[in-house]
């Protein structure tokens, strides 16, 4: 399998693509409800520490492998393992990543479908003059309606796979260039609005007053998993994007920019959502429905609220679209590397993910009480285990390969920063990121 010749057309395009992958449901939907369920400021603090100590260096590790290998994840790993004369089995990390993104995309598409439904509802003014009970009930009714959920899930998979089918230079890049800047604009407007609400002060206290007593191992494990999830690290998905990175770009700088932006987006949406939650005396531990129930209630009571709500769901849709494209890319790249045409590969991957996604759709109605592990139905299972366990395990293996196995010259040149910077990265990954991830995984699971 030869080197890929595809490249992002500019440095900005690469940064936009990686930000597009990172910023998504993780920041806007998952971050607020996980923070709500895991003690507020305690979770926030751990999440930021893990992003900086684990997520950032491992993100570099992952992109470096893709960039040095210039192939789809499995081939890149196999190629670099051969160069370094280490076991060819390292390529299975690429397959593990593909399994991880497969399950993540299957539920990701379902939840993204909710935002299509809510965008349409907001534009139609469906929430105007409705009581909180009515709005809560209409969310429940929507979840209990497999046909409507399937329709939105199908639409979202089609949106995703049509861009992936068009290929990196034609599809992803054009989309990212237009959509991402738009997203930040809408988000800043929403943040500015939050400052004017009565619950802003309480939201700030709840998010930022240190509360170390709330920390236990499950909070630590969840915060670590979330750091991987939100940065899109650990599934070889960024590895697939690294393969298209231009030769002359500095990786550390690009990755820093992305991580800071990712934290900023999470904080902004957290502040916006919790300001609204506290303004209206709602419950921050509501769970996955947090955003979908509280925001329409709050906004329905505001003048011009439907416009804000519509903007918010548009933002969410854009953000999830660019992330789901990244989730699908490594699977499609793998088939393309095996000789498939891109369009066909996208169609097959899309169809399989869509089919498994139906199990998540039905988890809110027919299959709600079918438990796979412990109390978890299918949706609970795929939205917890792959993000919180598979991603850290994948990230750990990727980091071990990049820091201890891959040829050092190849790693240094793929790093693309100063020699001192590379050395610092190496020390951080070898002696902080790898052991810390292993310790948290073991302590959290045992
Ligand atoms: N980072 C994405 C989000 O926050 C999700 C994702 C995970 C994307 C893993 C790619 C790989 O929504």
Looking at this protein, list some descriptive labels:
0% strand; Amino acid/polyamine transporter I; mainly alpha; 19 helices; 446 residues; globular; 77% helix; binds phenylalanine
Task: Summarize the structure in short.
The chain is built from 19 helices and no strands. With 446 residues, the chain is mainly alpha-helical.
Q: What is the fold-level CATH name, i.e. the topology?
A: Amino acid/polyamine transporter I
Number of helices: 19
Tell me the overall shape: globular
Number of E strands = 0
Percent range of helical residues: over 70%
Percent strand equals under 5%
Q: Rg from C-alpha positions? A: 21 Å
Secondary structure topology:
Elements (H helix, E strand, L loop, with lengths): L10 H12 L2 H13 L3 H29 L3 H11 L8 H32 L8 H12 L2 H21 L1 H28 L4 H9 L8 H15 L5 H6 L8 H29 L10 H11 L4 H33 L4 H21 L15 H5 L2 H21 L2 H8 L3 H27 L1
Helix pairs in contact: 1-8, 1-12, 1-14, 2-10, 2-12, 3-4, 3-10, 3-12, 3-17, 3-18, 3-19, 4-5, 5-7, 5-14, 5-15, 5-17, 6-13, 7-8, 7-14, 7-15, 8-12, 8-14, 9-12, 10-17, 10-19, 12-13, 13-14, 14-15, 17-19
This protein binds phenylalanine.
The site of phenylalanine has 16 residues, from helix 1, helix 2, helix 5, helix 10 and helix 14.
Describe the structure.
With 446 residues, this protein is mainly α. The chain has one domain: Amino acid/polyamine transporter I. 77% of the residues lie in helices and 0% in strands. Helix 7 crosses helix 8, helix 9 crosses helix 12 and helix 14 packs across helix 15. The longest helix has 33 residues. The structure holds phenylalanine.
